[in-house]
Amino acid sequence: MANEVIPHSLFSEFDVALFQSGKHFKLYEKFGSHELEVNGEKGVYFAVWAPNAKSVAVSGDFNSWNKERDALYVRWDGSGIWEGFIPGLANGEAYKYVIQTYSGEQLEKGDPFAFKWEVAPRTASLVHSTWYAWQDKEWMQERVIKNRLDQPWSVYEVHLGSWVRDPESPETLLNYREIAVQLVSYVKEMNFTHVEFMPLMEHPYYPSWGYQITGYFAASSRYGSAQDLMYLIEELHAAGIGVLLDWVPSHFPGDAHGLYRFDGSSLYEHEDPRKGFHPDWQSYIFNYGRNEVRSFLISNAFYWLDRFHIDGLRVDAVASMLYLDYSRSAGEWIPNEYGGNENLEAVQFLKELNEAVYSHFPHVQTIAEESTSWPGVSRPTYADGLGFGMKWMMGWMHDTLDYFKEDPINRQYHHDRLTFATVYAFHENFMLPLSHDEVVYGKHSLIYKMPGDEWQKFANLRTLYLFMYTFSGTKLLFMGGEFGQTAEWNVNKSLDWHLLDYAPHQGMKQFVAELNSLYKVQPSLYQKAFEASGFDWIDAGDRENSVVVYWRKGFDAWDDTVVVLNLTPVVREHFRIGLPYAGEWEVVFNSDDLIYFGSGIHQPNIHTEHLHWMNQLQSAQVHLPPLGGYVLQRKKELKGVNSAEEKAVSAV
Prior knowledge:
The protein is an alpha/beta fold and 652 residues long. It is built from 15 helices and 29 strands. The protein has an eight-stranded parallel β-barrel with strand order 10-11-14-17-18-19-20-21, surrounded by five helices.
């Protein structure tokens, strides 16, 4: 049967040169399948990189999956790009590439640049458009402010398929548009500033949570089309909510139809398993030293920021990229050229990624999930940093959870776990995460990590959240934590929304909503989130009482707040605390309020005394609630009374 493919190319010589040098960052405009018109005929152009292939053909419904008829043409320039135009095709066509290797293998591969895939377990790619009539111009203009690092970042982490399901059909995943109706109103009600979606790229194995990707350029068809996802993002933007997306440039699965040994060779991964195989996840590591692979990955980052208006990328498993010996024993890894364990190629890739992203999309952020002490993760590349905007503060998370797991009677012996984070809190731009990893695989839900009876569990968790939201850094909370989900997260079912029929869970939900609101309106809690000048301990050493007092500072001293936490179930009457300014202070937030399922202990306005305490010139007695805390602020109507004193204190 004659070849139906017409020679055609979307690549200029400059495109190819950029691709081969690792500097082409919009490859999604060239590779893949694109509906277009050539010489007056409508059809689809295909282009794929397979430099070690003997031949490449396109098979699909249109040719009854014939593996030979529609052969692509290899470019003359040695780039390894196969391409061609097939007339008569249109969006919606299912197809695969049939790759003949020089070793005699015949491989059937999905398109690495496909914009859509069939719903798993089917594995064909689909010709698809990403055109969308965006209506989020207002947000895209406003995010120059809202996505800045001196603005509030309270992120709601969501796994889309298990956030909510139809109770009448719990096995069925909802469409992006169906989820939008509930998710947007809920996130707005809860006062989160951003949503972070766990990976929404196409992945064959649903229980991988999206972290084993085969279709890097495709929104998962489990939930609908690219346009359906764009609608969800647009609706979030219309509500003033930013959208972050988990992105996985660290590894990919070994599925036969995916990137693995794409043209019969280790094209995207390393040939040597000591560099190319990931022992933890039984997956394959990208070859960051290969220019074309770097172009592929950075183009993928650009794709989501460009076509989907994503406000930031949370980059998964950065630590596994940085270290050649990550999860490997002696003899299972290859040192770098200097004999060290640093993956120099990955380091260079991450720097190039961040430089490219911030130069082309200056109003977004990149966030590293990086769990080691690698220096300068969130520092500029010109200062020898990796160039991320933020980094997850894993040490804070582990220390804080370990502290709160302790019975309050023992907390005096573990006090340093609560306070140690300030030793390194300003080395990076830290985000404080209570993520999905902490509520799965036998680790218990957040509420069941807490000690004590039901009341104490909820009081402990409220106090943990209050500490998190008033500590330096931005915030991230995994779905369900905001209302005290009791069961561990299960990817195969909805959150337990019925718990909101019960007072403790209602109280927790209202508490988090109002804590988010406090965080957004109190500049001292976010303006200097990453600066040592924005945080001071007033008292970090009261082990015996398990009480901490600290001072958060904004750009204006009148916005300053003082936080007092009592980490025991003992009510502390007439407890004296130091305060930085004289005058009248008020409780602007009380974690023990009855509406939150607290005990209802109330603290009236506080009038300071000129009595030196906790290294402060002023002090006052307060009535501390059990397993709870206050956020205090000077009465605003008194502003200006102590201007000379506040200037002196601020100068110190």
